[in-house]
Amino acid sequence: MTKLNNTIRRVTERIVENSRASRASYLELMQREADRKPEHKDVACSNLAHAFAGALEDQDAMKAGRGPNIGIVTAYNDMLSAHQPYGRYPDRMKIFAREVGATAQVAGGTPAMCDGVTQGEDGMELSLFSRDVIAMSTGIALSHQMYDGIACLGICDKIVPGLLMGALRFGHLPAVFVPSGPMPSGISNKQKQETRQKFAAGEIGRDALLESELGSYHSPGTCTFYGTANSNQMMMEMMGLHIPGSAFIQPGTKLRQSLDRAAIHRLAELAGTTERTLAKVVDEKAIVNAVIGLLATGGSTNHAIHIPAMARAAGIIVDWTDLAELSSVVPLLARVYPNGAGDVNHFHAAGGMAYVTHTLLDEGLAHADILTVWEGGMDAYTAEPVLENDALSWTPVKESRDDTMLRPASDPFIADGGMKLVTGNLGRACFKSSAVSPDRFTVEAPCRVFENQADVVTAFKAGELDQDVVVVVRFQGPRANGMPELHSLTPSLAVLQDRGYSVALVTDGRMSGASGKVPAAIHCTPEALGGGPLSLIQTGDIVKVCASTGELSTTADLSSRTPAPDPQPQWGVGREMYRMLQMQADGAEQGASAMLASAGL
User: In what residue span(s) does the Dihydroxy-acid/6-phosphogluconate dehydratase C-terminal domain sit (predicted)?
Assistant: First the structure.
């Protein structure tokens, strides 16, 4: 076996040491939960009757305790294209469970909002904290203690992190995450990007833009660009929480159904055992593997927030310094839109996660010895699933089938993982350098300060930003307004960049894997609310953003300035209901979670 890279080893050891007390506390809790989980024979008959009453086809098996009972936590809705296929999953999963002498019930549902629908709208302010709601909904579903294993149905942005955070509080049980796969490829990503920029520049109308977007997002399945949703699926593979190779198999195929069946059969096999419980699978090495996969594939920067939150739910402490150090040695292996021309279907066809895992392990750039839901550790994830005479098997993938899409770790696109930590007198922030041309790594220019993204677009249309400029969008942090994603800024700023201006964005708001080619210092912490550094900046101040040196600073003297007044909370679209979560949240680097902060985790 190839020796593990020294930096990865050192960072992992530091995470273990920093997490020693919290991880021990978590594992002790999971052991207590396992010890006190009631056997059905010890539960009052009235309680059992309530639990079994709706399961007509499985009542006899449940009453007799003939096999394990799997709890399905589903994020199904048919407004979200990625989750639309889940509508029929529970019925199929119950059949799959019966095939191996088990039973399955829908333990509960969670909300599942689509950032693509709320992008640039007021509803986006609910998005990040829907993750806490999903985690708590998962907890409610599993609190009935009627289950011997957990099947999590979720794909998209906040949904997988929320499901994992909630399920980890029931980590004494085994759990498998079951994806449904991406939609087929639509129009080329280059064409989509060009159309968006033409619309931003006023060269085409809304009808042409809508037709282009419908050419991209056109059928059930995950959106095919490499944003947060597909990064979620990558991470579940790198953590060993999927059936190997299941992340990017399209819905409605025989292979997809065979993998879904394998997931339930495997979960039934693990139920009642203690070797591969969720608490044991998600350890420090698994979290590091998730970070490594994110960096190696150029995944979503939203996970700079989600990974610390998911880790904390398992008693593991990770920060942006850890991510940045790992990024210094993990090479960029994939060019998936918006970091390249091809989408996730092209990525999968080129070798996908099987090849990424193979080449990382081959170069000592990932932990091979983690515990996974499947036998064989991470080596099992270096093969892709295939159907041979309707039988599911796996074939090793040892070479890239398209080196314009996917390259070996020994000959990568870029020597580092493309996620930089920038720091200075404006705070700490993330810079996704893998999406940005190196000649734009440094931007130093007068800033223009805004307090919402709509005003940025207005200024752009009025020609007020036609200059070298650092656009500062503040009061977009977790406690200010729920930290909405500001992806709708990208087309306007990209147009400015294409006009030859030196442009950058600095914000305490979020951007994702769909952020694109504009240099951006994002997730800035401390946030502006409450007197953070961004509340002291003024239009015209010189601001420097540099991915090469890791700098985020201003030459202005902030020490004598009075912070800009905090904005008033906004009502409407349910935002007022989320104020409790927002005001209890901790910082972006800690995971921006009210649930974890309130629980003292």
Answer: 405-592
Q: Find how far residue 217's CA is from the centre of its chain.
A: 20
Q: How far apart are CA 164 and CA 166, in angstroms?
A: 5
The pair of structure tokens assigned to 124 is 């986006």
Please report the DSSP string for 223-259 in residue order: -SSSSHHHHHHHHHHHTT-SSTT-TTPPTTSHHHHHH
Q: Which two tokens stand for residue 465?
A: 């930003």
Coil, helix or strand at residue 184: coil
H or E stretch covering 392 = strand 391-396
H-run or E-run covering 268? helix 254-270
Cβ(333)–Cβ(356) below 8 Å: yes
Distance of alpha carbon 559 from its chain centroid, rounded?
A: 37
Q: Quick one: pLDDT at residue 43?
A: 83
**Contact of 489 with 196, CB cutoff 8 Å:** no
Tell me how far apart the alpha carbons of residues 392 and 390 are, in angstroms, rounded to a whole number: 7
Beta strands in 30-168 (DSSP E): 69-74, 103-109, 149-153
8 Å CB contact between 298 and 226: yes
Is 550 exposed, middle or buried, given 0-12, 13-18 or 19+ CB atoms closer than 10 A? middle
Smallest Cα–Cα separation from 86: which of 244, 263, 226?
263
Q: Answer yes or no: are the C-beta atoms of 184 and 85 closer than 8 Å.
A: no
Q: Measuring CA to CA, which residue among 256, 189, 171 is closest to residue 226?
A: 189
Q: Give the span between the Cα atoms of 243 and 221, in whole angstroms.
A: 18
pLDDT digit string (tens) for 10-39? 999 999 999 999 999 999 999 999 998 777
Residue carrying structure tokens 């990017």:
248
User: Exposed/middle/buried for 571, CB within 10 Å: 0-12, 13-18, 19+?
Assistant: exposed
Q: Summarize pLDDT for 364-397 with one digit per residue, the tens.
A: 999 999 999 999 999 999 999 999 998 999 999 9
- Phi then psi for 176, rounded to 5 degrees? -130, 135
Could you tell me if 406 and 398 are in contact, meaning their C-beta atoms sit under 8 angstroms apart?
Answer: no
Please list, in sequence order, all residues whose beta carbon lies within 8 angstroms of the beta carbon of residue 528, skipping any fewer than 6 positions away.
Answer: 474, 475, 476, 477, 480, 508, 534, 535, 563, 564
Nearby residues of 463 by Cβ (< 8 Å), 6 or more positions away: none
> Which CA distances in Å does 15 have to 122, 142, 440, 463?
37, 29, 32, 48
Name 502's Cβ contacts closer than 8 Å, sequence gap at least 6. 440, 443, 444, 445, 468, 469
Residue 185 has a pLDDT of 86
Looking at residue 18, the DSSP 8-state letter turns out to be H
| DSSP letters for 396-421 | E--S-S-TTTB--TTS-SBSS-SEEE
Positions in the chain short of pLDDT 50: 513-514
The answer to whether residues 540 and 440 touch, using CB atoms and an 8 Å cutoff, is no
The tokens for 161 are 């992190």
Task: Please name which of 292, 291, 236 lies closest in space to residue 259, comparing C-alpha atoms.
Answer: 236
- Give the single-character DSSP code of 336: B
Query: At CA 456, angle to CA 455 and CA 457, rounded to 5?
Result: 90
Bridge partners of residue 504, in order along the sequence: 470
> In CATH, what number does 419-567 get?
3.50.30.80
